[in-house]
Amino acid sequence: MSLTDQPSTTPGFSRRQAWGLFWLLAAALVAWLIFAVWPDWLNAALVSKKAFVSAVLNGITLGGLYFLVASGFTLVFGLMRNVNLAHGSLYLLGAYIGYEVVSRTESWLLGVAAGFVALAVIGLVMQVAVFRRLEGDDLRQALVAIGISIVAADLMLAVWTGATYQIGIPEWLDGAVTLPVITAVRSNGSTVFLTYPFYRLVVLAAAVAIGIGLWLMLNRTRVGMMIRAGVDDRAMLSASGVNVHVLFAVVFAIGAGLAGFAGVVGGSALSVAPGEDVRYLLASLVVVIVGGMGSIPGAAIGALLIGLAEQLGLVYFPTYGIVLTFVIMVVVLAVRPQGIMGRPR
Amino acid sequence: MSAVAAAPARPNSAAAIAEAIGVPHALLALFLIVYPAIASDFFIAQIGAYSLIFGTLALSLMLLAGYGGMVSLAQMTVAGVAGYTIAILGLNNTGVHGFGWPFWVLVPFAVLVAAIASALIGWISVRTEGIYTIMITLAIATAFFYFCQQNYSLFNGHSGFAGLPSPESWGVSWRAPTPFYYMCLLVAALAYAAVLYASRSTFGLALQASRDNQRRMRALGFDVTAVKVAAYFFAGIIAGLGGVLLTWFNGRISPGTIGVGPAIDVLVIAVIGGIRHPIGPFVGAVVFVLLKTFAIDLVGAERFNTLIGLVFLAIVLFSPDGILGLWGKIKPHLAQGSLSPGR
Asked: Mean pLDDT, to the nearest integer, of A39-65?
């Protein structure tokens, strides 16, 4: 995927222009698939337009949720080489805390804030009390994280039992919106538009906002500059007078806080139950393996791919859906072991 | 039991070495052979056989992690592949599949399938290095668990397969506690001896050298990837045997048997015991099984995971080489203590 212009064998067409044309055609095809009224053969081939477009939208919004979870994971890994296998537990704990706050204060926004702040504090404590002592020993860090996740899962089971919770969504976020997408034309000529839960679009918007926020933080602020420098060369950053331990603590707090935030946001869209920690840990793992370790844009691409694969798989081959996710991971590892946006080390 | 950890002995003479290695092993073997005579059925099956099975599973991880530096969380997945093969191609009373292969064909085939699966997992995960292995194998283990759970046409989904018949031959029902115990003991002892032997073979040395310095091994002309994938294959044979025994022990296999919890249990067992010597996984398995069985008296049946998690954390934080490492730290003090009164 080199973007440098190279003299191409085809006269008048550089490699870059060819790729541009390819993406333009792909975008046109997707736009046509979404906005056009489908001919019968296509409806027959892909179940129905409603199913297809819903699956794509669900995939994109689920990808947004995965991005929220995985961005914290990839941030922590990229800077500290710390594979935080307790990340799924942080997600679930955030969701439970969010549930408690929302059901007591009736304020959803307060719940989201509580999920972020509580988990950021917990992440800070984890980094300062535990992971800092094991710095440089990434295997032991991973083992400790596994130990923490075992204990955390069991204690959460003790406190919140095995019941399934649903975090209440405020009215102004609830309901469905009608999208300008025609799913079918009735025999009397009236058109049927697709309706979609408004809250899921909010999740997507939150993911995009967090993504842009992270990008701005990493690329436009002093802290972000330090983080990027730390990813490239930690020893040199430390030597140039930056207190890397404070930086690590801040990044771990942000990463854990994002997991808690995602827990509340995700727990409102889906449900909160034991076992969700494993599910989101798997999602984070696959997203960063596919997208590239430590890369925020990589996490976005990976999350989108995995979210789409999961939802399209659910519609088109329900009992083999997970295989699609798995195949994506294996293909990426075979072709680009460092991930789509990862840099070789 | 952990006296075996002290195996590296004074290089005085060949006889001394043979003695130093031989005596603890011989004593251990004697104890394990007479164990059924002195224990109740519950202790034979639920403690003895169960520990040997989990020790064998953890041994396959120890082979990869200790000698190869590859911490794989997919060993339970490999065991599950063998277990599902037994259930699908053998007999089960769930009414799905069950081709009724005789078990003397079935077991070698199931172990072979497991070993091939393990080699494939290895081939996927050795493309990256170090800490990535743990992430990729955990992702594979989790994905396989979800796949078994949602797929009904092949794996019979959430309920899995039940009513797997116990093998019978020469008029012995091998699921009765004592015969089953001896079967587990035989498999565990063979696997243990094989790993011990392999660690001193050319292959084992190449594997350990690849762990220590991959680039130098490449420069010396070794195919590091092939060595590592071969290690996964051998570990797959051991894990496959463990999986077959576990499936017979439970009489059933379902996604719950191979979920993330059990996959992590195998890691916990290996780390608690110690991954520097093949005896470690068995020590860890005994501790784990005893804790699991008697946790009711300590913390109540519900909170076993908290207990084992805390034990695991304590081991990882304070004695990275597990109980064997603890023994290695304590032993010099004991030796000092026993020597000083004499002087």
From this structure: 81
Residue A212 and residue A297 in contact, taking contact as beta carbons nearer than 8 Å? no
pLDDT tens profile A232-266: 788 888 898 888 888 888 889 999 999 999 999 98
Mean pLDDT score of chain A, rounded to an integer? 84
Cβ separation B135–A333 shorter than 8 A: no
Residue A185: strand pairing partners: A191
> Is A154 close to B153, i.e. CB distance below 8 A?
no
Q: Which residues contact B201 (CB under 8 A, 6 or more apart)?
A: none
Amino acid at B23: V
Dist. CA A162–CA A272, nearest whole Å: 10
A139 touches chain B (CB under 8 A): yes
pLDDT beneath 50: ranges in chain B: 1-11, 340-343
**Residue A24: in which H helix or E strand, if any?**
helix A15-35
Q: Which helix (H) or strand (E) holds A62?
A: helix A49-80
**CB interface of B with A, residues 118-137, below 8 Å:** 124, 127-128, 130-132, 134-136
- According to the model, what pLDDT value does residue A345 have? 56
Nearest to A151 among B124, B135, B306 (CB): B306
Nearest chain A residue to B264 by CA: give it. Answer: A146
Amino acid identity at B276 = R
* ipTM attached to this prediction: 0.80
pLDDT 10s digits, A79-100: 787 888 899 999 999 999 999 9
Query: Is the Cβ of A338 closer than 8 Å to some Cβ of chain B?
Result: yes
Among residues of chain A, what percentage have pLDDT more than 90?
21
Q: What is the predicted pLDDT for the residue at A202?
A: 87
Most confident region among A3-7, A121-125, A310-314 by mean pLDDT:
A121-125
Long-range contacts of A155-162 (CB under 8 A, 24+ apart): A155/B306, A156/A89, A156/A92, A156/A93, A156/A96, A156/A274, A157/A274, A157/B302, A158/B302, A158/B303, A158/B306, A159/A96, A160/A96, A160/A274, A162/A273, A162/A274
Are A154 and B309 a contacting pair at CB < 8 A? yes
Residues of B in contact with A150 (CB under 8 A): 264, 268, 305-306, 308-309, 312
Class of domain A49-173+199-335: mainly alpha
Is residue A47 within 8 Å of residue A184, measured between CB atoms?
no
Q: Where are the domains of chain A?
A: 49-173+199-335
